[in-house]
Amino acid sequence: MEDNxxxxxxxxxxxxxxxxxxxxxQNKFITDYDPTxxxxxxxxxxVDGKPMLLEILDTAGQDEYRSIRDKYFRSGDGFLIVYSIxxxxxxxxxxxxxxxLIRIKGEKTPTITIxxxxxxxxxxQISQKEGQELAKKSNSVLIETSAKTGQNVSQCFEDIARKVxxxxxxxxxxxxxNQSKTSNTLKKKKRRLITRKKxxxxxxxxxxxxxxxxxxKKKFEENNNFRxxxxxxxxxxxxxxxxxxxxxxxAKNFE
Length: 255
Description:
Elements: E1 3-11, H1 17-26, E2 38-47, E3 50-59, H2 69-75, E4 78-84, H3 88-105, E5 111-116, H4 128-137, E6 142-144, H5 153-203, H6 210-222, H7 224-230, H8 237-240, H9 245-254
Parallel strand pairs: 1-3, 1-4, 4-5, 5-6
Antiparallel strand pairs: 2-3
Helix pairs in contact: 5-7, 6-7, 6-9
């Protein structure tokens, strides 16, 4: 059974989000397209030998669609936050996307920062070091890509899918651990309740039989809670009372 992974691509307008998506899905560089409002794609992939169904959401980057951005944050498992290495404005917006994502989803959300258009090196305005610093600050990693040449495009999608899978497995393991702790706590409470009932029963015993006294003395020495319950019993009587082998056997059976 395959894992499902919903990848949301975020970034300013014209940074190449749709070009990256279509390069990955169709291995083509598309230049003629309308600005995206929202597009959904699906692709079955093999990551580390295991099948995964990727649902890729290519989002709007234009300012007029800011009001629906929170919906994108809440709907995704993993996020690709894209800027153009030729655009300082898109880099600033990428930082803003990171801040919003952390605010809404938390710091451990699987995220990759993408510096796109690496083929335009002569027009670069955002250094690789700046991109790495942004990624580090946002608990992410930087991958520089080119939708035009295909450089690192497959890597960024496969890496985010891997991050999502590992993140989900960690959440599942944590959930199982919490359930186990809860179950153990309930079992301990149940055992304490049963023991308390037994202690109450024995503390009310007449203790006329020597075998019962032997049993109570043993429990008295082993259990502090029991000690409180039966401290009224004078165990010193056992020192002077003659206890036969039959009583010892009865005490063992009584236990």
